[in-house]
Amino acid sequence: MIVLKLTDGLGNQMFQYAFARALQQRRNDKIYLDITKLGYGHIRSYSLDQFVLNEQVIVPIPLFQWVFRVYTKIIRLFLNRILGISLVTQEGFDRFTKIGYYTTNEPIRFYKCEECSMPILFVRGFFQSDKYFDFIEDTIREDFRFKIEPNKKSLLEMKNKIKSTNSVCLHIRRGDYTKYKRFQICNEAYYREAMSYISKKVENPVFYVFSNTHEDIVWIKQNYTFQKEVEFVDLSNTELEDFYLMKECKHFVISNSTFSWWAAYLSSSKDKIVVAPYPWIRGDEYQEDIYRKDWHKINVDDLQ
Fold this sequence. Notes:
One of its GO terms (biological process) is carbohydrate metabolic process. The protein is α/β, with parallel strands linked by helices and 304 residues long. It has helices at 10-27, 62-82, 90-97, 137-143, 153-164, 188-201, 214-223, 239-246, 258-266; strands at 2-5, 31-34, 57-58, 101-103, 121-124, 166-171, 205-210, 230-232, 251-253, 274-278, 296-299. It folds into 2 domains: 2-143; 153-303, 3-Layer(aba) Sandwich (Rossmann fold). A 6-stranded parallel sheet has the order 8-7-6-9-10-11, sandwiched between helices.
């Protein structure tokens, strides 16, 4: 049995699931989801139910989820606060793993994972690196297919535009990122540099601009000046509908957001170019693990 605690937005939930799926592949266990920190007054909702996933993923009754949540919190506090076992080092990660608890406070750092023979595994963390699940990449792509593809008229019209051009998804993450300095908003200079890089490699690119909300799109129009051909995607789409369109693009200029990370990862476009900002998180010693090897990084500090 694998008990997975899901938290935060769609991109984070996808990383958490992908990590647990890699564990499941090795053990052939069922994954039980704890979604007590999603929905019901929380900012984020459970979003993975829109994907196929696999038949061995179960959302148990709330009572069981709360038991899982309380148990793992007690274990984590005891080991971390009482025994002083670190949640940010490989050694600490290994000590938790030995008792069947895969947990860390470092979101974008890759930890080598030792196999554990405990009958129940508990997973808590973000695990934002494809190194955790690169050996089952095809499986992950299958699991993250939509159960029912969106069919809204305006969305399908936009999808046809995207498919008929040398489309580039350009994602500008604002929203909650305006509140936290650690998750800096990529500035206009980053996007100009990224668009210039793409334009040298792609013939007649069309940049499709995505952001969190209509208000964010309005702000971007008023504050950013684009020298290339752009089209703003402002269709009052849901988060999943925007995600559906984003991953249909042929190339990508992503922000430091797991949402656009996954759109780029899941795109089936051949020879796609992906441009990403560096660093991903302010003040984090570990950066490289979140980037795929063939992605082009632009250092935003050089553009200040």
